[in-house]
């Protein structure tokens, strides 16, 4: 049976435009909160394939999306490379031993050895393959090397990125050494997710917009393209989605290139601009501003607007970044059904 989401990624004819939401398995769902409470905390949940599988499937049953995204986190990668990760309530992720010196980096496990430690992720994917309906696709994912490196260097979320940017301008060779090590782990990680059963993979560069346009290729995009090339060489039929957040100026200047299938458009980038610059080369995914989910009216208006731009083009509906925890479930359902309604052929 064909999967509508995979077909859309490959620009094949579909009965309507498929839809999913970034961060669709999460805190806005009471059912998620219940399973997380059983697990004790978020990381335990990531480490438990049965429970991770259960929360991955919840948004399919509850809000009716067309694809499942593996429940995990981008930060399990540096965690398994040997960094000490904790998710602190009300604060977010924290690495207690951020990278400051060459020795800190050299201590970390690299390459396939690090990717081999993420067995619970592959186990979750294998379970999902047994449990997901045949027509629903499973999306695997990773963080982009740059986005992962920001957490590995800063030790936590940041508004200014001053530690990694200090490195970018005063010791770029060392930043490249970190990015190289992370890229090599991610390449193996992506292949192993695909071999476990992921139908599609997405690379999240959530903090792309922290880099000035003239430096973006050098410190982020080229590593993402290298990962996509590596996947495409081994598994050309597996769609690859790139999601660099906040890169309107990068698109505007025709700086996007690479061998991948779908470009994820963030909510700050006009869909019409993305269509003009990228629509002939890549299927576009996105891009409703996630806060529109607080109003059904604002949601419908946006979905209709996106549809009028993307009608007849390669398109997948999504938000332009993750859904927030206090969005009413009913409004998320409304978004999904409106996307399916307006695009029905
Ligand atoms: O999309 C999905 O439903 C799949 C699961 C998923 C999570 N994180 C679960 C999660 C995915 C794809 C991610 C990716 C992720 N994680 C990114 C890239 C995407 C993006 O949103 O930009 C980033 C930057 C992270 C790092 C991260 N994880 C942060 C900064 C935080 C804390 C902030 C927050 O939203 O709470 C997390 C925690 C996290 N990851 C939660 C979930 C469901 C919340 C944990 C909880 O249950 O309390």
Automatic annotation (TrEMBL):
GO cellular component: cytosol
Site feature: Transition state stabilizer: 73
Known catalytic reactions: uroporphyrinogen III + 4 H(+) = coproporphyrinogen III + 4 CO2
Keywords assigned by UniProt, alphabetized: Cytoplasm, Decarboxylase, Lyase, Porphyrin biosynthesis
Cross-referenced CDD domains: URO-D
PROSITE patterns, alphabetized: UROD_1 (PS00906), UROD_2 (PS00907)
Keyword presence, Cell membrane: no
Assigned EC number: 4.1.1.37
Family per record: Belongs to the uroporphyrinogen decarboxylase family.
PANTHER family the UniProt entry points to: METHYLTETRAHYDROFOLATE:HOMOCYSTEINE METHYLTRANSFERASE RELATED (PTHR21091), UROPORPHYRINOGEN DECARBOXYLASE (PTHR21091:SF169)
Role of this protein: Catalyzes the decarboxylation of four acetate groups of uroporphyrinogen-III to yield coproporphyrinogen-III.
NCBIfam families: hemE
Subunit structure: Homodimer.
Protein name: Uroporphyrinogen decarboxylase
Gene behind this protein: hemE
